[in-house]
Design brief:
The structure holds two protein chains of two kinds.
Chain A (H helix, E strand, L loop, with lengths): L8 E2 L2 E9 L3 E8 L4 E8 L1 H4 L2 H15 L9 E7 L2 E7 L3 E3 H10 L6 H20 L2 E2 L8 E4 L4 E3 L6 E2 L17 H5 L6 H17 L9 H10 L5 H4 L5 H10 L11 H12 L30 H12 L14 H12 L3 H6 L4 H4 L4 H17 L5 H18 L6 H5 L14 H10 L23 H7 L14 E7 L3 E6 L5 E2 L3 E7 L4 E6 L1 H4 L4 E2 L4 E5 L15 E5 L16 E8 L2 E7 L4 E6 L1
Parallel strand pairs in A: 18-19
Antiparallel strand pairs in A: 1-2, 2-3, 3-4, 4-6, 5-6, 7-9, 8-11, 9-10, 12-13, 12-22, 13-18, 14-17, 15-16, 15-20, 20-21
Helix pairs in contact in A: 4-6, 4-10, 9-10, 11-16, 18-19
Chain B lengths: L2 H20 L2 H6 L4 H14 L5 H11 L7 H18 L2 H7 L3 H14 L4 H4 L3 H10 L6 E6 L1 H8 L6 H39 L6 H5 L1 H8 L14 H17 L4 H26 L3 E5 L4 E5 L6 E6 L2 E6 L11 H12 L11 H4 L3 H8 L4 H10 L4 E4 L9 H4 L11 E5 L4 E6 L5 H22 L21 H8 L8 E5 L4 H14 L7 H15 L4 H10 L6 H9 L6 E6 L9 E6 L3 H4 L1 H17 L5 H34 L16 H9 L6 H7 L2 E8 L6 E5 L10 E7 L5 E7 L2 H8 L3 H31 L2 H6 L1
Parallel strand pairs in B: 4-6, 6-7, 10-12, 12-14
Antiparallel strand pairs in B: 1-8, 1-13, 2-3, 4-5, 7-8, 9-15, 10-11, 14-15
Classes of the chains: A alpha+beta, B alpha/beta.
């Protein structure tokens, strides 16, 4: 604000505003008043002006590169000192530095496209080769010193630490620890051209994997890691990389300069060749369904609430015993289910009360389940002599029912019905009953239609703890009770998918979507975002989404490791699990089929994949 | 009498008659021109349209009409009369050799309108380009094509194995929805262009005018071609895109003060009321073309009448676009079942199809139809109601696009044919309905939409075919019919080739180097392509392999001499460059500009060789090399100034072509070393280009649709040529999302027909490929030279 240089003119250049601060200098946006073009003016920091060594170094930077002409090196127009003000003037570049660019990719949970990695890498390599040819080592190659201009030009900046190898060195440790070469970390005077190429290698590593290889809050620790630790295999960070690419990075980041690529172009030629072994087609996300289309037949959950069903059923039974479900074509699966219900009504149902007659006669399993659910409730309530009272009873449980139950068609669900009445003490609610049915795929639960003639099964004792452990509302709908088990763990800041299925899962098959209270869907998340990092979710591994710059990440101890990590911003359109007054639930999709609905407030939800 | 003399004599007679009428007092009173000007215009018209007494008769008729604006029917009738007049005045040979086609007639007619004091602009309510299209880009060779790979790549990446029925259904539903949404798709196009253009005009005096000039290009970089993840489940693509643009727009205009916002809103409202509906009507594909002797008649069709044409095993089937008796979109399950039935048909039976007719010249097609069987005619009539055809018979992916499209593709009455290569989809588009840019955008949009349908369909249980047999359109020809068709005139024989051997990165790097040398060197990638095309035309040498082939086949081909003449022809071509005119007015669509690189005037080739020679001498010199450097430095500056000037000429010409206005040449004169011939040339760039005049002159088309956005899956593009037989080469350029520049060449030179007739189509193909590859490799070499020249400085040399 009070910078005295703002508004001042030095030579032909008017200083207008601050652009940024470097290690020992301030950079201003200015204007060449004669040529009427924007410029960047770099002025030595006041604290260094009295230090002749720094001042010399500063002037040296300008002198060094003013004579150069290279499309990937910033062009110096002018340099001078005026009343103790050491400054030089360079071309003004409109764009973003590579550090900012990488941060954006990271925020979106993405990696830079390979062709851009090559393009940027090649530009830096070309600039370095040129500088090295001039006998100059940059010594501070890092993403924030690489400018990606709006016209796509890539420019290496800030030769502030540049060292003319013929002039010796002050011997200090310069450079940024995350990108510093081991020999340079020991002593700045050890820096050689291959030290710059090591730094370039780190940048390439970061662009290709999304992380720098060595990281620690302490700069000294980072420097030590460069010196002592073997390179974390790039393919551990990004399994999509091929072996050839990994080999190039390993060579580029050898501890000894002699073992590295000796020229920038050699490194980039090798890398380009290696990555071209990939299929270069960028991943294409599957788009949403066509507007207005939903998965209706066979695999979908009904859009009709239980309360609606009951109301409609009550009306219908006054005239007919068979209730056709509109919008559901008679698919093979649903027919089987209806056959089951016709052939063998569960004995307990048949014997309980005449009031259930209309339910048993219903033609589709979905209706049967709903009916049974209500039956369970009525049995427990000890009242139910009239249909009217049933409806009244439904009304009392309506919030729970309408919020958690979909009308299920598949046969599996129908066969789980016998357990509903197994233990009145457990059958606290409909949802609870379903938990019993699905949490342990016992033979009883998978029994076919004929098994419904067997005596009333009781829930195995071992299931009881599960019921207690799992929040009832967290497991509201289960479509594939015998399916592969996955646990979702989440809070306002983070979301984790823990694969406890015993095998690996295709990450791209997942989908999630927030359910608005009025029934519409919002905040769609596609599993292929996870798959970009690693195609599968390994057994006992997690995929995670952690909202950027939050502190309350769950980081469950059950996760052996993370196959995928995404760091969205809170407002990103795919964040579906966070508290929102408009929404109480999200739904879980597997290959676009809805398989479960989960309560947002529950912070845990178990789902079963087909 | 030689041909030229015959033509001249016809012109003189026409001129005399026309002058007599034009000098009559009734006409003179209407005309805004002086008598010498009237005579000059009459001479010009007669030179371009030597049509005997017809121009005079038309002028006389025009003079009797009171209004300054003519009904379209009158215009069409007069133009048809002029065509007939030329045909009758010139004999066939002279006509073929000298007459410049529809552009000449329309140009001539516009001048007659001027003589009669009418308003030529008003008399072409859809703009000159659209009128021209209806007359001059109607043949099979006037269709351009593009290709997307997104559908199959995405399916592969996601390991989705879509059944053939669902693949066909995905595309059929996409086509159906495209037709239902087309008006809104066009509305989006119009809004985006008009809003940004009005904003630009309104803010020219503001300090941040430059920001507002860039708004459309900013939008181009982010506009979606498919529904994103943030689309709601009921929001279709046009709604989604509109929503996205509105969000973008709100941010753009946010800084404007309220007065300006109000003014902006008012102007937008006025424009919307005055021209949106006209634009939608003009560009609608809900229409079919009807060939007349000289032009196409576009007949609109109602959505409820429309069908999608499906071609399978050579048979044509129709699918409804609406549910029966309503304007509601057809049900996907119904369409799917229908397609399941079509695709389950046994292989027996044959259809003659329509490919025999597709390449017949349109002027004779109308008459020919009436000679075919009633059943055939009726089937053709029915097919007219299918603006989109989907050919499900797989085409080889490795064919050049112009060969991919050489399959069943209707007869050319419709807007779009989609071909399936199994790995990509190819969109073959009539120029009357689509320009390169809009056609490419639509291909992209349709690809994304089809993918949405694929996602939906793959979760459905297998479709069951209907029990009833599907009915295909009965296209059966008798032997007599075939003979009749074979004897009709066909479009020019064509060979084609494609290459992706151009190295784009060095070109982009060269542009940066130029920029570093001087802000005044503003050559675009396309400018460099055009410049090198001219150099290539003068320096092309057939490859040794081709020479070997030619020598080997020479004894077997009768007209080999002519083939060799064509190959060895070295002529600097007049290049027709289509310029996108839609930012100014979406209805104008394109403005074709012709350009002849001033090779001789500027001695480009000589200077290039000289600079390279001086550079080599400097680099290899020993001892005191200062004089060598000085020599190189002088030449280098001169050459770079020349390149800067060339870029300036093209830039100025493009600006004039688009805007119809001149721009300052002040900047170029800042260059110290600008060669005198260049300054002269700059001064000679006219203040306004006459579109039709340019069309008459152009000999090659060079169409670059540019670089696609990163998310795009467009891969290939071929451009179209007008029906004038003088256009011999058509270059198409596209740069895909991987930064690969892909160049296509359609070759209509005389040797193609000769070699095809002689049974050597592969040789014709080889000649085209050789020509194209030599262009690509030569360009790379030229760019390397330029990079070397630009990079070299004395300082860098001293350091070595």
């Amino acid at each position: 604000m009070n910078d005295p240089l703002i508004g001042r003119q030095v030579a032909n250049f008017r200083i207008e505003r601050v652009l940024g601060r470097g290690g020992m200098a301030q950079v201003y946006y200015g204007r060449d008043v004669k040529l009427q073009r924007p410029v960047a003016v770099k002025v030595i920091d006041a604290s260094f002006r009295g230090n002749p060594a720094y001042a010399r170094r500063f002037v040296q930077e300008a002198r060094t590169i003013a004579t150069w002409r290279h499309e990937n090196i910033v062009q110096i127009y002018y340099a001078d000192n005026e009343s103790d003000l050491y400054y030089f003037v360079m071309e003004y570049l409109d764009g973003l530095d590579l550090a900012g660019l990488l941060a954006r990719y990271l925020r979106n949970g993405e990696l830079m496209p390979l062709e851009d990695v090559i393009r940027i890498g090649r530009a830096i390599a070309s600039a370095l080769d040129y500088a090295h040819q001039k006998g100059v080592v940059h010594r501070d190659v890092k993403p924030s010193n690489v400018m990606v201009a709006t016209d796509d030009r890539i420019v290496l900046m800030d030769f502030g630490l540049a060292l003319d190898s013929h002039q010796g060195t002050m011997g200090e440790v310069f450079g940024t620890p995350h990108y510093i070469a081991p020999e340079q970390a020991r002593n700045s005077s050890n820096a050689v051209p291959q030290s710059d190429l090591y730094s370039l290698g780190i940048i390439l590593y970061e662009m290709l994997t999304g992380t720098v290889p060595y990281d620690d809050p302490s700069p000294t620790a980072v420097a030590l890691q460069h010196l002592t630790l073997p390179l974390p295999p790039p393919r551990e960070r990004n399994p999509a990389l091929n072996i050839e690419t990994e080999a190039v990075l390993i060579k580029a980041l050898s501890k000894s300069p002699a073992d590295r690529y000796q020229k920038g172009y050699e490194l980039m030629d090798a890398l380009e060749k290696a990555v071209s072994a990939h299929s270069f087609a960028s991943p294409i996300e599957l788009p949403p369904l066509p507007a207005g289309m939903e998965f209706r037949p066979q695999t979908s959950l009904s859009q009709v609430s239980v309360a609606d069903w009951l109301a409609r059923h009550t009306q219908e039974t006054q005239t007919s015993t068979a209730y056709p479900i509109p919008g559901l074509p008679p698919t093979r699966r649903s027919l089987q289910t209806s056959e089951v219900s016709r052939q063998a009504p569960p004995p307990n149902m048949a014997s309980s009360s005449k009031k259930w007659g209309w339910l048993i006669g219903a033609s589709l399993a979905s209706v049967l389940i709903v009916g049974l659910a209500i039956a369970g409730f009525v049995l427990l309530s000890g009242d139910g002599n009239e249909d009217k009272q049933n409806v009244g009873a439904t009304a009392t449980v309506e919030p729970s029912i309408t919020a958690t139950i979909g009308v299920l068609v598949p046969q599996d669900a129908a066969t789980s019905i016998p357990t509903l009445t197994a233990s009145p003490t457990e059958a606290i609610s409909v949802a609870g009953i379903q938990t019993v049915a699905t949490s342990s795929p016992t033979p009883t639960l998978t029994a076919t239609a004929t098994s419904t003639n067997s005596p009333i099964p009781t829930a195995p004792a071992s299931l009881t703890p599960t019921i207690e452990q799992i929040s009832v509302s967290a497991v509201p709908t289960i479509k594939y009770p015998n399916g592969r088990r996955v646990i979702l763990l989440y809070n306002a800041d983070s979301f984790y998918i823990l694969n406890v299925s015993g095998g690996s899962l295709q990450a791209a098959s997942f989908g999630f979507e927030r359910i608005l209270n009025e029934g519409n869907f919002l905040n769609r998340f596609y599993g292929n975002q996870l798959a970009r990092f690693y195609p599968t979710l390994d057994s006992n591994y997690c995929a995670r989404m952690e909202i950027l710059q939050r502190t309350g990440y769950l980081r469950p101890s059950d996760c052996r490791g993370y196959n995928s990590s995404i760091t969205p911003q809170a407002q990103d359109s795919f964040v579906f699990w966070t508290p929102d007054p408009r929404s109480m639930q999200f739904r879980v999709l597997w290959n676009e089929e809805e398989i479960a609905r989960c309560e947002i407030s529950a912070e845990r939800c178990e789902v079963y994949l087909p | 009498m030689d041909l030229q003399a015959t033509f001249t004599q016809a012109s003189i007679k026409t001129s005399q008659n026309l002058k007599t009428i034009a000098r009559e007092s009734a006409v003179r009173e209407l005309s805004q021109l002086s008598l010498p000007e009237i005579d000059a215009v009459a001479d010009l018209v007669a030179q371009v349209v030597p049509a005997g007494n017809v121009p005079g008769v038309i002028l006389s008729g025009l003079a009797r009409l009171p209004s300054r604006r003519l009904p379209l029917q009158n215009v069409q009738r007069d133009i048809n009369l002029l065509f007939r007049g030329v045909e009758q005045t010139l004999d066939k040979v002279v006509y073929g050799a000298f007459f410049a086609g529809p552009a000449a007639v329309i140009w001539g007619y516009q001048n007659l309108l001027k003589l009669a004091g009418k308003d030529p602009e008003e008399s072409f309510p859809e703009g000159t380009w659209q009128f021209y299209l209806d007359y001059a880009l109607r043949e099979d060779t006037a269709r351009h094509a593009n290709e997307t790979h997104g559908f199959d790549t995405a399916l592969k990446q996601h390991k989705i194995d879509l059944s053939l029925v669902d693949r066909a259904t995905a595309w059929a539903m996409t086509a159906i929805y495209t037709l239902h949404q087309y008006t809104r798709l066009l509305e989006n196009e119009w809004r985006e262009r008009i809003y940004t253009s009005i904003l630009q005009n309104l803010t020219t005096d503001l300090p941040d005018a430059a920001r507002y000039r860039r708004v459309y290009s900013e939008w181009e970089k982010q506009r979606p071609y498919g529904r994103g993840r943030d689309a709601t489940s009921v929001e279709d693509y046009p709604q989604y895109r509109r929503h996205k643009f509105d969000q973008f727009w709100a941010k753009i205009i946010e800084p404007l003060d309220s007065t300006l916002k109000h003014e902006l809103e008012q102007r937008i409202n006025v424009a919307e009321n005055e021209s949106l509906a006209d634009y939608q009507r003009q560009l609608s594909i809900l229409a079919y073309l009807e060939p007349t002797a000289y032009g196409e008649k576009r007949t609109p069709i109602r959505l409820e009448e429309v069908a999608i044409g499906v071609i399978y095993r050579g048979f044509y089937y129709l699918l409804p676009v609406c549910q029966a008796g309503t304007a509601q979109v057809a049900d996907v399950h119904h369409i799917r079942r229908h397609l399941a039935t079509i695709l389950s048909q046994p292989t027996n039976g044959t259809s003659d199809g329509l490919s025999y007719l597709a390449s017949i010249k349109r002027p004779v097609l109308g008459g020919l139809r009436s000679k075919l069987s009633k059943e055939f005619q009726q089937a053709l009539e029915t097919l007219r109601f299918a603006p989109i055809l989907i050919n499900l018979d797989r085409r080889p992916r490795n064919f050049p696009l112009s060969q991919v499209r050489q399959a069943e593709r209707g007869v050319g009455d419709h807007a779009l044919t989609i071909f399936d290569t199994g790995e990509t989809m190819v969109f073959d588009q009539s120029h009357i309905f689509f320009d390169g840019a809009w056609g490419s955008a639509l291909a992209e949009i349709m690809t994304n939409e089809a993918l949405s349908w694929a996602v939906y369909l793959l979760n459905l249980p297998p479709a069951q075919p209907k029990q009833t047999q599907p009915t295909s359109l009965p296209f059966h020809l008798t032997t007599a019919d075939r003979r009749l068709i074979e004897n009709q005139p066909h479009v020019m024989a064509e060979a084609s080739a494609e290459t992706d051997n151009i190295k784009l990165r060095p070109i982009l790097s060269l542009r940066n180097l130029f920029k570093q040398r001087s802000d005044l060197i503003q050559l675009t990638v396309n400018d460099l392509l055009i410049l090198y095309r001219a150099l290539h035309s003068m320096t092309y040498e057939p490859s040794p392999t081709l020479i070997g082939q030619l020598e080997e086949l020479s004894p077997r081909i009768r007209d080999m001499k002519r083939v060799l003449e064509v190959i060895n022809e070295r002529q600097n071509p007049v290049i027709l460059i289509p310029i996108d005119a839609s930012p100014r007015s979406p209805r104008d669509r394109l403005h074709p500009m012709t350009f002849e690189v001033p090779l001789a005037e500027l001695d480009f080739m000589g200077l290039h060789d000289e600079v390279i020679g001086a550079l080599n001498a400097y680099e290899s010199a020993t001892g005191d090399r200062a004089p060598y450097y000085q020599r190189f430095d002088d030449l280098q500056r001169q050459y770079l100034a020349m390149l800067a000037g060339f870029g300036e000429i093209l830039s100025r010409a493009k600006k004039i072509a688009i805007e119809g206005e001149s721009m300052s040449v002040g900047t170029i004169k800042l260059l110290a070393h600008i060669p005198t011939p260049l300054q002269r040339l700059l001064d000679e760039v006219p203040g306004r280009f006459d579109m039709l005049n340019d069309l008459i002159k152009g000999r090659e088309v060079f169409s670059n649709v540019g670089a696609v956005v990163k998310s795009s899956t467009l891969t290939r593009f071929i451009s179209a040529k007008d029906d004038n037989d003088k256009k011999l080469l058509v270059w198409g350029v596209i740069t895909d999302a991987n930064g690969v520049m892909r160049l296509s060449l359609r070759d209509f030179r005389a040797h193609v027909g000769i070699l095809q007739a002689a049974g050597y189509p592969e040789l014709a193909q080889h000649i085209t490929q050789d020509y194209l590859e030599s262009y690509a490799l030569g360009l790379n070499h030229y760019v390397d030279d330029l990079r070397r020249i630009t990079l070299t400085s004395r300082e860098t040399r001293i350091q070595r």
